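TL;DR need structure tokens for one chain.
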Amino acid sequence: MGGAVARRTASLFLYLTTGVMMDKKELLKKLVLEKAVKRGDFTLASGQKSNYYINGKLVALTSDGLALMAEFFLKEIEGDNIDAIGGMVIGADPIVGAILTLADRKGLKLDGFLVRKEPKGHGTRSQVEGPVKDGARVAIIEDVSTTGGSSKKAIDVLKELNCEIIKVITLVDRQQGAAENFANWGYKFSSIFTKEELGL
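>> reply
TL;DR here they are.
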């Protein structure tokens, strides 16, 4: 384990000091393929069967992976006048926090939110956590998209708060219907990587 940590640290050091080893997207791609992609027989949340599974949380819960993810997600909303960014728990949780931290460091004002699958059964009984204001321009984020169903649930909840859904962004688009569905639903959709770009 120590050798693996040393190699990763060395790779990051070379990138940060020389900028020639690999660009940031290639580094993030490498982390996704090494950490998030699992081979086997899986049933996805959409009900579809697959011989591979992508667990974006295995990248989002590492310091280097999360830092890179935040940078790319934040770049995807540049110029869109987004008020708040968020998504469904628990996949969006670490990513939202990292994006907000990076936004602050860049002097950008941005709020975050998390959407529960169901309203909580105590306290305010809210389904959305975060300072989302009525009429806010929001972006929905997700770690992995198959058909887009999870993000659509978040959209439906936020529309009840009169939010304007500007776009949906995912780390990986499995290219199994999400792009087509969001187009049909009338929402802009983009991904950091597609299944094809990852070579899956």
